[in-house]
């Protein structure tokens, strides 16, 4: 390997190495979640679970026999 080739390879290796190090730092930062983000994620998961339960109830009402639905509505009106 002559001096010209070596002089060309050193900056190339340095540039590629810096890109790899930068990419690893970015990946590491993205992997961490702050406590605030964890709390928001927990709140969103709870809200999704509640919404799934509401959808299940609505599906039961929508697929239920019409007469029992009428009875429930009438019971709610009387209450």
TrEMBL record:
Keyword Transmembrane set for record: yes
Could you tell me the keywords of this UniProt record?
Coiled coil, Membrane, Transmembrane, Transmembrane helix
Q: Which residues cross the membrane?
A: 6-26
Coiled-coil segments on the chain, per record = 34-79
Question: What is the protein name stated in its UniProt record?
Answer: Phage shock protein B
